[in-house]
Amino acid sequence: GEHRPTDLLAGLDPDQLAAVRAPRGPVCVLAGAGTGKTRTIVSRIAALVRAGHVTAGQVLAVTFTTRAAGEMRTRLRAMDVHGAQARTFHAAAWKQLRYFWPRVVGDAPWDLLDGKLRLVGQAAHRAGTGTEREALRDLAGEIEWAKASLIGPEDYPAAAARARRDPPAAPELVAKVYAGYEALKNDARVLDFDDLLLHTAAALEEHSAVAEEFRDRYRCFVVDEYQDVTPLQQRVLDAWLGERDDLTVVGDANQTIYSFAGASPRPLLDFTRRFPEATVVRLERDYRSTPEVVSLANRVIGAARDRPAGSRLRLIGQRPPGPNPRFAEYDDEPAEAAAVAARIRELVDGGVALSEVAVLFRVNAQSEVYEQALTELDIPYLVRGGERFFARQEVRQAMAALRTAAGSDPGGELPALVRALLVPLGLTEEPPPGGRQRERWESLLALVELAEELVATEPGADLRRYAAELEQRAQSQHPPTVEGVTLASLHAAKGLEWDAVFLVGLVEGTMPIQHADGDDAAIEEERRLLYVGVTRARVHLSLTWALARAEGGKRYRRRSRFLYGVIPDNDPASRPAASRQREQRVVERPRFCRVCGDQLHGVMPTKLGRCSDCPADLDEGLLDRLREWRMERSKALRVPA
Ligand code: ATP
Ligand code: MG
């Protein structure tokens, strides 16, 4: 091969270079968000290949999301490295499993499970427990935790108690549903997501010929986002490695956000205990965000309690100064969403690309009000990490049609083939004017674009490969890319970056999430999640919250505890709502609540002429106490200096 190490290493800082140039063997990069960890490992792979230490085909890099894996492949190609594997743990395992399956099991590879909740529902029904969607989702999540933690049904009750889980049903009942689910799944000869990893590890552990062949094929392993590795993923990684130590890991313990699902930063923090000869590199220059964003990120994570040794890294911003992060409080969620949409319009009109804007929320249910607000302003968006795309009727119909067609193997040019198959479902030449029909059309078009994307990266891809890619994306809830503002959960945003980021719904009960309340470890994970959110922004960052959910809503919600001490004192949002209202006296004719006497403003007043949080009928004694309470509340809202 040709050696062009200089251009490859150009632009890397000395610490990044140390990681890139480290000899073969264990390397660990411990560093904060935006410091170039991902960029560093990509460069390291390229450097190792260029120097002839390994061939590209011998490299296996695992990352957290399909999109991140895709980006890694793109960056490797840009560095002229072709054929290196960059995949999620699951995708890598699935590929290997299909290859080994005939030797390990003997019959045709099993299919991926489609409709997990249905199976969990059957098992729950047989076990005699609740089968509402919400309950099934919790049960499925708990089973996933157990599998990721390498805990079988029999051991579940004891392990759940040890791990201080908060099981969705009596632990014995969960164990019963878990066992029932496994049995149903095996009878149906299908594999769930975790099975891909379990079977891959087992194949390598129990079949020495398989392990030898595999270890001969892959010689260099790289793991991004290593702080969120689960025991199950670690077991797969160990099976891949065998006795070898050619492993590069990068991670940031402050970004551990999947410990609820069994992940742990311990393997990252204890890396040198396992590999005492490892090269350890710490990066602290932040290349992603403006100093304003970096400083906010430092404040958010600086308040964290019990940070493990090795996670105490401060970020030093490298980019030129930018605008201050914005903080704003709204009366209700529709008002918050409308303001966010209006601001996005402003940014986009000012030259920020749609694909460079993200609205990030804690739970996917928050997405809807933003979808409405964006639609209102004609701003295209895509929902990432939600179930929406793959739950859409037309997408499910399309996937069924594609699966059937793939079976008959029409060998035709892929995108044209896909388009032809989707025309009967509503993929007209011209886009329909709007509404549901338009949405349907957009999803179908996205499926065609995905086919185009696939053949661009894998020129030989056929319909069967495409159908498999779709299944995989459906499993990992990774909808295809459409040009638009990204709506995503904070969890789905990890590793990614945008010019403008909106962190919305920052109220108690949502961020931190309700069920974290009273659980210190869970609260700290919520704080890290906010840190992940803040550090996604390159330039524009906005943090917002609303005091009521619905328009004129009654329930008074408090801003997130994570905001205290984080909003600068000179920001108007740092002061309680009441004092700001006095400043913004733009209400034409002031109105006052007939219960508590406060001035009414904005969309808050109800038809009855009282505050949304004032009860309708009050006696005088209660009224006094309410006034007192409102005073207290105002004091509590004041941010400490
Ligand atoms: P995260 O923890 O969020 O995954 P990360 O540490 O992986 O962050 P990267 O995504 O690799 O960070 O890099 C963040 C941004 O900084 C990217 O846009 C990357 O191209 C840029 N970057 C990284 N290193 C440098 C450098 N030495 N000079 C200029 N830009 C850099
Ligand atoms: Mg990264």
Automatic annotation (TrEMBL):
Gene3D superfamilies named among the record's database cross-references: 1.10.10.160, HRDC domain, P-loop containing nucleotide triphosphate hydrolases
Gene Ontology cellular component list: cytosol; DNA helicase complex
Annotated signal peptide: none
Gene Ontology terms for molecular function: 3'-5' DNA helicase activity; ATP binding; ATP hydrolysis activity; DNA binding
Protein name: DNA 3'-5' helicase
Enzyme Commission number(s) from the entry: 5.6.2.4
Reaction it catalyzes: Couples ATP hydrolysis with the unwinding of duplex DNA by translocating in the 3'-5' direction; ATP + H2O = ADP + phosphate + H(+)
Domain UvrD-like helicase ATP-binding: 10-290
Family: Belongs to the helicase family. UvrD subfamily.
Source organism of this protein record: Actinokineospora spheciospongiae
